[in-house]
Amino acid sequence: MSISNKILESIRSLLLAYLLTIVLLLLLAFLVFQFNLGAAVVNITIICIYIITCFLGGLRLGKKVGSQRFLWGLLLGLLYIALLVLISILVNHGIAFTSTTNITAFLLCLCGGMLGGMVS
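and the corresponding structure tokens:
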């Protein structure tokens, strides 16, 4: 597979990961509305959604590229995080991801994407 095809598959896998994120976050919003979940549960669930979607995106990408799958999964996790940071900068006019929890979530997204690539 050529590098341009790998990049195209990376973009498709990233879009899949974000579509899954949107669907799962909408489901979470519904559950919060119905059951009045606490902030700690919501925050943990959001991080889990990020990890799961990075894993699934890395899994899809790893199956498509075939070689060096863990690196492509890691790249997917990095692009996922980069887009989250970019959206945060645009919305908040600055970086809002400075806490230890967010940095941990970023590292877990990287690991989730890489693990998805390795498993594929």
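(Above: one complete record from the training split.) The mean pLDDT is 91.
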